[in-house]
Amino acid sequence: MIGWGIKGKSVLRQLWRFLTSLKTSAWAGLFFCVAGAVGSVVMGRYPELFADMDAQVFAGWFARKGFADPAPTLWLYGLLLATALFAVNAACCTFERLAQIFRGTATMRRLLPHVMHLAFLGVVLSHLVSAVYGDRIPGVAVPQGGFAPVGGTGWVLRLDRFDAVMAPEGYPIDFSATVTLFRDTTPVARGVVRTNEPLFHEGYGIYIKNFGTTPWGAPYAVFDANRDPGATAILAASLLFTAANLLYLFPSRRADA
Amino acid sequence: MEGAHLILFWLALAAYGAEAGFRLVGVAPASAWRSPLFAGVLLHAAFLGMRWGLSGHAPMAGLFESLTVFSFSCAVAGLILCRSEETAAAWKPISVLVLLPQAGAALIDKRMTPLYPALDTPWFASHVGLSFLGYGFFAAGLALGIVYLRDGGDVVYRAAGRSALYGFSAFSAGMVCGGIWAYYAWGSYWIWTPKEIWSVIVWIYFATLTHLKFIPSQEGWPGWTKRLEMGATAAGYGVVLLTFLGVSLLLRSSHSF
After folding, report:
1. Strands (E), chain B
2. Per the count of CB atoms within 10 A, which of B29, B64, B131, B223 is most buried?
3. Which residues span the domain enclosing B126?
């Protein structure tokens, strides 16, 4: 029993060493790069499989296609595995360093790379939240003055007015849509949607994607409604990463990192 | 005026050509600040500034503008990193790395095109500008990596390390700007295209690279980790080229010029 206990501790120590090792992060990085490179080629070879990847959240797409057709999606398993290993490696490395700082064997100056680790973990975990709990409602087409339901949200979108400024050559310089969002018959949000300026309501963003003219001559616009519950946290974590990264560029803060 | 600004482009190309020619035949200027390349950078900056003013948007849309900004970024990164006597040997490869994209741009249609509405945002200039600044540092890393692998030297090693760190920092900030822009323009900070995947590959590659120097040297192979790091720094330029040009020209991606 004592022998098993010692052996168990030794295995745990080896596992911890593996999880905190820089070599592990180097191999995970290499593995990620190879899997991603393969994926970028495979995506072009199987357009029928990957074309709708952005039309729904990743977890839903992967549950439907990743498990049903594992061979062409094998690279995605590789990406997920490498990302998970990276995240665990960064978490363990930072935990170890924080313990050293707490014990007084390391200085606060060594903390910046670990702020970057924590920010990276924030991005990964927030993206996981978006990939599982997000929502994608593509292709909500509404003629001017008309209404269209917005997926399963219970909202109805009305296109009050559509405006487009066209160049003499025929391409659009600017286009905008004045819309009203209804729940039952009550308006709950109203605004102008244009490229780079969506309308946000209760976590959803309403984006204008396309426009045209109906056969009877009325203008119409096509909208996407997306919800990314992790987006704000990703933004905060990304800004934290950037701030720590900029501070890290000062050599005095980089020493002994 | 529209044609006149191109004279600055050609003069910058001539200056870069002179620099590369002198360097290749073994003639070195007294300092980087008194070199044809520095004159080229000034002319190039004036060209980009004029084009920005004339077109009304950052000159970073389309293949011509991308290539010429890439060349400019390489020159600026070289001037930042290779100012000492010890790093002077890196100017030979850098001068070629600056000249090639500018010469490539010279072969392409230079007409100013109107900006697609989605690109008409400050996030466009910040995302593309910071990404190209990162690419410039990675190009300088190739030159410094080659010099280190051939001649060694601590100053060159440190400069090459800074190229990866500065490039990674600029590229990371560019990715953050790109994510914010994509969230407002397309409804998601992430879409599955080969360009996005390769951008993350570049990020992971250089994140891993900046960690390599902290891996302790192996007994019996004392210089191995430094040489590996420098080899990887040089090879990183290949990853960058694949991301910048390879994906756009070889793979189908909506995120291309």
Report:
1. none
2. B131
3. 4-250
In a domain, B140, yes or no: yes
pLDDT, one tens digit per residue, over B7-30 is 999 999 999 999 999 999 999 888
Who among A25, A195, A242 is closest to B117 (CB)? A195
Chain A's closest residue to B162, CA to CA, is A249
pLDDT in tens, A102-124: 887 666 667 889 999 999 999 99
Report the alpha-carbon distance of residue B231 to residue B146 in Å, rounded: 8
Q: Does the pLDDT of residue A2 top 80, yes or no? A: no
Phi, psi of A207 (to 5 degrees): -115, 135
Residue among A25, A194, A235 minimizing CB distance to B180: A235
CB contact under 8 A, A198 and B214: no
Residue B3 confidence (pLDDT): 79
Provide the pLDDT for residue B246: 85
For B123-144, the pLDDT digits (tens) are 999 999 999 999 999 999 999 9
Whether B21 is in a domain gets the answer: yes
Structure tokens at B188: 């998601």
**Torsional sign, CA B9, B11, B14, B19:** negative
Q: In terms of residues, how long is chain B?
A: 257
Cβ distance A33 to B239 less than 8 Å, yes or no, reads yes
Interface check B201 vs A, CB under 8 A: yes
Tokens of A249: 């560029």
DSSP label of B255: S
Number of H helices, E strands in chain B: 9, 0
Per the domain annotation, does B101 fall within a domain? yes
| Count of structural domains within chain B | 1
In a domain, B54, yes or no: yes
pLDDT tier at A257 (50, 70, 90 boundaries)?
Answer: very low
For A10, A83, A237, B47, B159, the CA distances from A17, given in Å and listed in that order, are 10, 19, 27, 54, 31
ipTM tops 0.85: yes
Alpha carbon B191 to its chain's center: 24
Residues of chain B neighbouring A196 (CB-CB closer than 8 A):
117-118, 120-121, 123, 181, 184-185
Per the CB < 8 Å rule, is A198 touching B187? yes
For chain A, which residues make up each domain, given as ranges? 2-106, 135-227
Which of B193, B236, B222, B158 has the alpha carbon at shortest distance from A29?
A: B236
- What's at A242, amino acid-wise? T
Residue B189: phi and psi, rounded to 5, are -75, -10
How many Å from the N-terminal Cα to the C-terminal Cα in chain A? 42
A-chain residues near B204 (CB < 8 A): 29, 32-33, 36, 86
Backbone phi and psi for residue A149, each to the nearest 5 degrees, phi listed first: -70, 145
Contact A167 B181 (CB under 8 A): no
User: In this complex, which of B117, B198, B242 lies closest to A174 when CB atoms are compared?
Assistant: B117
DSSP state at residue B51: H
